[in-house]
Amino acid sequence: MKVLLKADVPGIGKAGEVKEVKDGYARNYLIPRGLAIEATEGVLKSLKIQKSLHEEKLLRQKKESEALLRRISAAPLVIKVKAGESGKIFGSVTSATIAGEITSKYDVEFDKHWIVLDSPLKNLGVHRIGLNLPGGVKGEIVIKLEAE
Fold it and tell me: In which domain, by residue range, is 125 found?
């Protein structure tokens, strides 16, 4: 019997896959536990539509992310911070701070989780920061920390 897996099943497959299993295993174990449903023509057609919609969404998300990356990486992002004479910042600049600055400067929703920052920035100067944007888009921006 062909089944559509609703969850990962060890030894069978991952969620969303269509697999051939023995009738008894499907009827007595997979289907009653909600791990799979019978793969009828209607279910397969629905799955195909869902996959195409998901692919369209990912493509749209990738295009939006690429446009956003081009926009924010065009010029260095200048952040004014309080600092001592030695160039040390009072406090630190975190990914949340950077995301807030990008959101306010470019008027876009920017999630702090998109920023790849090993440790908070604690010195004045120019820093290169990695980004992992939705849709698998990776990039880099330049941040310039200046004293107030």
Answer: 62-147
